[in-house]
Specification:
alpha/beta; nine-stranded mixed β-sheet
């Protein structure tokens, strides 16, 4: 099967909820989590998604019908794992035919496929983004695990387009130690905004 003909994807989970972090925090969206990731960040909060073989492959057409029945919002957030491990041209084509806006959350470490309404890039040091994605990124969200990661954030901020929204987000388990430092950094560098994982405080998916 050619990549452009991919019509099945390993789906870890799909659910209707509110966006918990970044630029679109608080907005309703239907989330689709695709299995498979080989970056293996130590702080990842979805390690259950790494092994694609553990998750059933579902026809994109069937998934679309499910979303149409369950989602009032016409916004789809595609996350992972790492979604760009797969060619998502067909996925985007089918959902756009049905008037959905499609939002991608990615590390950018694989070639970009699909046509997106919003791309949130969360770059990882272990597998840096492909050069091509920076010019198309709408939102740069850098996870801060230690204060040295602020340098990594600035490196990536230099590469995105001038309209890209910039966010710093503390790694969840270290938020009590890092949040104040991130706040102070943003006060000195106001091009950045803080991203907080509000869905975890609200105890929603």
């Amino acid at each position: 099967m050619k990549k452009k003909e991919i019509k099945l994807l390993p789906i870890v989970e799909d659910f209707y909820s509110l966006q918990g972090e970044g630029f679109h925090t608080g907005k309703a969206a239907y989330f689709i989590r695709i299995g498979g990731c080989d970056i293996a960040c130590s702080f990842c909060d979805t390690k259950f998604s790494w092994n694609a073989d553990l998750h059933k492959k579902i026809k994109i057409d069937n998934l679309l019908e499910k979303v149409k029945k369950k989602s009032v919002a016409k916004s789809i957030v595609v996350t992972g794992g790492e979604p760009l491990k797969y060619n998502l041209d067909y996925f985007c084509e089918k959902f756009k035919e049905n008037n959905f806006k499609i939002f991608l959350e990615t590390s950018g470490s694989y070639k970009l496929s699909g046509k997106w309404d919003w791309i949130c890039l969360s770059p990882k040091k272990k597998s840096p983004p492909k050069k091509e994605i920076f010019s198309k990124t709408n939102e740069l969200k850098v996870i801060i695990e230690n204060l040295d990661d602020l340098l990594w954030a600035e490196e990536n901020a230099k590469k995105v387009n001038k309209n890209c929204k910039l966010f710093l987000q503390s790694e969840w388990s270290k938020k009590d130690f890092l949040t104040n430092s991130i706040v102070e950094y943003i006060k000195k560098n106001p091009k950045w905004a803080i991203s907080i994982q509000t869905h975890k405080y609200l105890n929603i998916p």
